[in-house]
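Table S2 (continued). Query chain:
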Amino acid sequence: MLASTIQKKVSEQFIVYRDADWAFYQSVLNDDRDFSKKIVFDGETVEMMTKSHEHESMSRFVHLIVVEVALALDVPIHSGGSTTLQREDLEKGLEPDECFWIAHALDMTGKKRLDLGVDPPPDLVVEVDVTHAVVDRADVYAAMGIPELWQCRLGRFRASKLVDGKWVPTEYSLAFPALKVEDIGKFVSRLWDEGQTRILRDVRTWAETLKKS
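Corresponding output:
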């Protein structure tokens, strides 16, 4: 596809290219890579989103919670951070805010490069949306068959599980069955009012109680 046929829209937070194809998405990834931005492609639209402090703080905070839970429950995890997840056969790709292999953690041992043609997709992905993203990332994750999605959106935290290709709200995590989703939300809601260290001390204490569940 010629770049001249692609519609470009620029705002303060986003650069959006409509009527794009896989080749154009790859060119953005490989030729115009700006690591201060996240890139998503849903088969038609390429969106580049600027990372804000609010976005990154919340994302990393949820990462720390997952680590505390995994340590308390002695569950193996493999953290992939914002690794680019892409499937040419689906013509879709994106970078999650956080991703984890949990049921498949041992399958990722020693892996330095990810190939979703042969490697399993993450068992859990985290998405933080503070600026109304244009592309629906949940649809991309569903197409890739990722089983669990945690979303922090407009101050609300929720978890969903993939059932027959559709996202269904879940009260308990699939990756950590002892973990009640609303408990994570309570910690996240405190993030802007208290120091992270104080909250994480409470997370650690709470995570230890999950062993008894």
